[in-house]
Amino acid sequence: MKIGDIDLGDKPLFLAPMEDVTDPSFRYMCKRFGADVVYTEFISSDGLIRDAWKSRAKLSICDAERPVGIQIYGHLIEPMVEAARIAAAADPDIVDINFGCPVKKIAARGAGSGMMRDVDLMVEMTRRIVEAVDKPVTVKTRLGWSDECKNIEEIALRLQDVGIAALTIHGRTRSQMYRGQADWTLIGKVKNNPAIHIPIIGNGDVDSAERAKEMFDRYGVDGVMIGRATYGRPWIFRECRHYLETGELLPQPDVRERVAIAKEHLAKSVEIKGDRVGILEMRRHLSNYFKGLPDFKQTRLRLVTSFDMEEINSTLDYIAERWGDFDMHDITPAPLSHEI
C-alpha cells in the first residue's frame, strides 16, 4: 500500500488520532511496537490561525515517528486551507482532515462528522486543501450522519476525484457515536468498488490481532486503523503484525515487561515535555498499563499523584516485585478514550 510516494508495505497498521492520547510520547511507543503510521491529536484550524500555544504544540513531531500525519479540523474553508498550510510547514508526511469526530461541540458547528451533512462543502474544502499543500492529503470520516443517511459511497468517490491520497472510514454513523458495533460492510463495499483506486483504511472495534486479520481478509481493506484498543496497550501493533505474518498469537506482556514499558514511556514523556507536564500527562497511561491487577487501588493512587520521578519509578519497581508472577493472560485495559 502507498500513500502518495510513501510505501507502507503489505497490510499496514495505523494508530488512530485520539485527543489527549496520541501525544508524541505515546506515538513514539506505538511506533516502537510496530505501528506503520501514527497521527497527532486533532488540531483546531482556528487554534492554529490564532497561534494558540496548545494547538501549535500539537504540531511537534520527530523523525522517529515517521511516517506521521498531522490531523486538522474545522468548518470553514479559508481557515482550514490556512491551517493545512501551517500543518504542512511542520513537515509531516501526511496532512489528514477530520470529517469524523462525532462530539457534539465539534459536529454541531459543522466540523468533524458535521461536515457529512454538507457534502458539497466537504468536497470543496478538501479540493482547496489538496491544491494548497505539497503533502499527501488524507481524510478520516464515518459511514454517514445517521442510519438514514449512510452516504460514504458517494463521499468516497467525490473525495477521490478531488485528489485525496487515502481514505479512512470508521464503521459507525455520527448518530451512533461509539455505541453498538462498527459495521464494516459498507467499508468493504467502498473498497471493492471498481471505481475506487485510492487506499481504503478501515477503523472501528479492532481490539485484537485476530480481529485485524479478519478485517483484512473479509473486507479487503488496504490498511487497518486501531484506536481505543491501543490505550494502555501500545504492544497491540506487535501482536497484530506477528499474527498477520505467522498466524501465531503472542502472549500478553507480563507485569515486569509492562513495568519496563511504562518506565520507557514515562522517560520519553518527561524528555519531551519536562518533569511536571510530562508526569502529569502520563497519569492517564500509567495506571492503565496495569488494569486488572488485584488489590491495586492504593498503588494506583501513588502512581497518579506523585510528581517525583524517583518515587514513581520506585512505585513501578514495587509493582514488578509485588505482582511480577500475576498472570495477565486475557486482561486488557478498558477503553477510556475515543478515536477521532
Question: Can you walk through the features of this model?
Answer:
With 340 residues, the chain is of the alpha/beta class. The protein has two domains: 235 residues, Aldolase class I (TIM Barrel), CATH 3.20.20; 69 residues, Four Helix Bundle (Hemerythrin (Met), subunit A) (Up-down Bundle), CATH 1.20.120. It contains 14 helices and eleven strands. The strands form two sheets. Strands 3, 4, 5, 6, 7, 8, 9, 10 and 11 form a nine-stranded parallel sheet that branches. Strand 1 and strand 2 form a beta hairpin. Helix 1 crosses helix 11 and helix 9 crosses helix 10. The mean pLDDT is 95.
- Averaged pLDDT, please? 95
Helix/strand order:
EEEHEEHHEHEHHEHEHEHEHHHHH
- Overall CATH class of the largest domain: Alpha Beta
Structural class: alpha/beta
Strand content: 5-15%
Number of domains: 2
What's the total helix number?
14
Task: List how many beta strands DSSP finds.
Answer: 11
Shape: globular
Write the CATH fold name of the largest domain.
Answer: TIM Barrel
CATH superfamily of the largest domain: Aldolase class I
- Give helix % range: 40-55%
